[in-house]
Amino acid sequence: MKFYILFLFSGFFIASVFAQDQDITLRVLGQSNYVEYAESNVAMISINESDIDKIDTLNDSIANLGFNSKLSKIEEFKNPNKVQFKIEDEDISRFDQLLVWFSDLQINVEKIYFRIPEHRFEEEDKNAILALNNANSQAKIIANHLGYKVYKILNIDDETTYAHPVYDDFDFDSETGVLMLRLLELLGGNSLFKTESLDPIRNGGYSLWVTYRLTMK
């Protein structure tokens, strides 16, 4: 006797079952989620060449407030009549004061964003363990519901960009491997390397499929 079952529980987890005789093969999607936080706030401003003295006034105010960073000129800005600057700081309360000064001095704000660090791939092992634990919990719930118990794990399928045999010979800890990993993520449109964000946090997740053998209790 053979039968297939597909489980979708309120959008939280997915599992498929193949049964033959007394044993059941169960495939579960395990997931873990994480949050990465912005390190600093960034403002890009521009000013007419004729009003460049306002930058000196702004620099004095910045120094008096005790900012860790200073205005830096953006050389590649191509407008011949304007000058563009950038400033970055970790303290949001002081950054709000910056915006007040920009307004008072009638300095044009071109762009404001949060700087989020590139994703730390050394944390992926921890995320993988959490995803596996998540799959194990789901497998036990499903097995118990069917009157079975988890006998063993048959297979773990890591759902990542580079989980493919063609990349087996790459040492992703080497300089070449890191460059290859970055290229793969960028080609895939992955946001993990993007450092500019309109939000102060970046939500991410790690997924893997785990196949189990279940036996009757």
Q: Can you tell me about this structure?
A:
- This protein has 217 residues and is an alpha+beta fold.
- The chain contains four helices and ten strands; from the N terminus they run ββββαββαβαβαββ.
- The chain has two domains: 2-37 and 119-216, no CATH class; 40-115, Alpha-Beta Plaits, CATH 3.30.70.120.
- Helices cover 29% and strands 40% of the residues.
- A five-stranded antiparallel β-sheet has the order 1-2-3-10-8.
- The model is unreliable at 1-13 and 160-168 (pLDDT under 50).
Describe the SSE topology.
Elements: E1 2-9, E2 13-20, E3 23-37, E4 40-48, H1 53-65, E5 72-73, E6 82-89, H2 92-104, E7 108-115, H3 124-146, E8 148-158, H4 175-187, E9 196-197, E10 201-216
Antiparallel strand pairs: 1-2, 2-3, 3-10, 4-6, 4-7, 5-6, 7-9, 8-10
Helix pairs in contact: 1-2
Per the principal axes of the C-alpha atoms, what is the gross shape?
rod-shaped
Give the tally of β-strands: 10
Q: With helices defined by DSSP (H or I, 4 residues minimum), what is the helix count? A: 4
Gyration radius, rounded: 26 Å
Would you list the SSEs in sequence order as H and E? EEEEHEEHEHEHEE
Residues in β-strands, percent? 35-45%
Biggest sheet strand order reads 1-2-3-10-8
- Outline the low-pLDDT stretches: 1-13, 160-168
Give the mean pLDDT: 77
Which properties best describe this structure?
alpha+beta, 2 domains, 5-stranded antiparallel sheet, 10 strands, signal, single chain, 217 residues, DUF541 domain-containing protein, 40% strand, Alpha-Beta Plaits, 29% helix, disordered N terminus
